[in-house]
Amino acid sequence: MSVTTAAPPRTLRLNATDNVRVAIDTIMPGSVVEGVTATQRVPKGHKLAVVGIPEGGPVLKFGQIIGFAKAPIAPGEWVHEHNCGMHEFDRDYQFAEGAHDDGLLPLAERRHFDGYHRPNGKVGTRNYIGILTSVNCSATVARYIADAFNRTDILKDYPNVDGVVAFVHGQGCGMGGSGEGYDTLERTQWGYASHPNLAGVLVVGLGCEVFQIPRLMKQYNLVEHDGFRTMTIQETGGTKKTIETGIAVIKDMLPAANAYRRQPTPVSEIMVGLQCGGSDGYSGITANPALGHASDILVRHGGTTILSETPEIYGAEHLLTRRAANREVGEKLVDLIKWWEDYTERNKGEMNNNPSPGNKLGGLTTILEKSLGAAAKGGTSTLRGVYKYAEPVDTHGFVYMDSPGYDPAAVTGQIASGANMIVFTTGRGSAAGYKPTPSIKLATNSDVYTRMIDDMDINCGDVLDGVSIEEKGQEIFDEIVAVASGKHSKSEDLGYGDAEFVPWQIGAVM
């Protein structure tokens, strides 16, 4: 009679210097992993100590510090927030020491996609009409105007128009008329008003708010024309008259918007916002590095990728500064980190408030660990620029834009900066979309991909089964080109994107 022995649980050691292994399968007490007997249950995505770690000693993953032992940790123990914490430590920024040539492909070898060419020279991946609001007081009117098109059959006569979207928010009044908060909202509004995925824009205000439409127009030298119109409820004569007038304005815009046709375009006109949300212990192993490889491919084709979420690169910023094109670019990134340290302190928080409860359930213990995985989305290309939130990105290649870690606010800023594509990795399962820009979802593990198949575009969990990061990165790049050319992402098919416009709110509400 033969006796079958259960296969040992699969684990990963990500760097030869690591003192923990990541569990691919759940590790039960008594299991032997690389000669170490587990003394506690270690859930999938979590960490097992493979050597003893003294109290105060660094916990190493990716070959980097992700925390420090709160008490002595014995080989075989589960390593998580009960025995691993964090405190500040020195990082060697090595400014620009790792900058290198990105290996741009010859023009003849670069890929193309089918995009919408706008009069200002920008290229869109979608063809929407947008309704912007200067203040929360005009949000309902904007939604009613959009509903008149999206809940009727008016758009059936305009098959090239993807829809009419109301971008509403909770700001615009009860705020300072100058300073960081006002400037941030102004940049965001202008970024959407000029976005290549919008064929026409109507801005609706109340009239008496702090955020005045004429001031926005003066700041950016805007004048009204057939594709850009403004109005206020007070001047137009109230709610009903403004809705009627707004509907008429959009109807006037539809023929010109419908006249746009997709044209072959170099992928150098694709600008991708790199995002992660609902991260887990696999994020930095599967989807994020695979997206990083796709980012490197796009950069070699002349395109642009934007990494963001400053609280979620905290502790990994030194890996980006050494890839900066020059010292000035690297120092701009460090200055952002310092601003965030001050910002969280002013608001009686701390940088390690992140990761979230869901992140921790997925295996992430500290912000240092989360950041090291999140930064992998940026691949290996040289960091060419660092931008404020919603500041127009005016260079090609891999760049950084400041933002909170809160996904809707971060993506809103990336779109305002010019992103015409979003690629979003998730380990716990994210359900969102970001009109007017299509969003591709990457699952970090096969369980989430299978369970949320209607929301996920690509499964990166098969990296754990032997698919290479390079293969998966190429698959992601091919999907970016396809979706940019008109293929619908899962979140688009589900109708997401009308509620995810969330400009970053900075400053007191008064």
Mean of residue pLDDT? 96
Which runs of at least 5 residues are low in confidence (pLDDT < 50)? none
Task: Describe the main β-sheet briefly.
Answer: 7 strands, parallel
Number of strands: 23
Helix fraction, binned, reads: 25-40%
Outline type: globular
Strand content is: 15-25%
What spatial order of strands do you see in the largest sheet? 19-20-18-17-21-22-23
Distance between the termini: 79 Å
Rg, please? 24 Å
Global structural class: alpha/beta
User: Total number of helical segments?
Assistant: 14
Secondary structure elements and their pairing?
Elements: E1 11-12, E2 20-23, E3 32-33, E4 36-37, E5 47-49, E6 58-61, E7 64-69, E8 78-79, E9 84-85, E10 112-117, E11 123-124, E12 128-133, H1 139-150, E13 163-167, H2 180-193, E14 198-205, H3 213-219, E15 228-232, H4 233-236, H5 239-258, E16 263-266, E17 271-276, H6 287-300, E18 304-307, H7 317-321, H8 327-346, H9 357-361, H10 367-375, E19 383-387, E20 397-401, H11 407-417, E21 421-426, E22 439-443, H12 446-451, E23 458-459, H13 469-484, H14 490-493
Parallel strand pairs: 12-13, 12-14, 14-15, 17-18, 17-21, 18-20, 19-20, 21-22, 22-23
Antiparallel strand pairs: 1-2, 2-5, 3-4, 5-8, 6-7, 7-9, 10-11, 10-16
Helix pairs in contact: 1-5, 2-11, 6-13
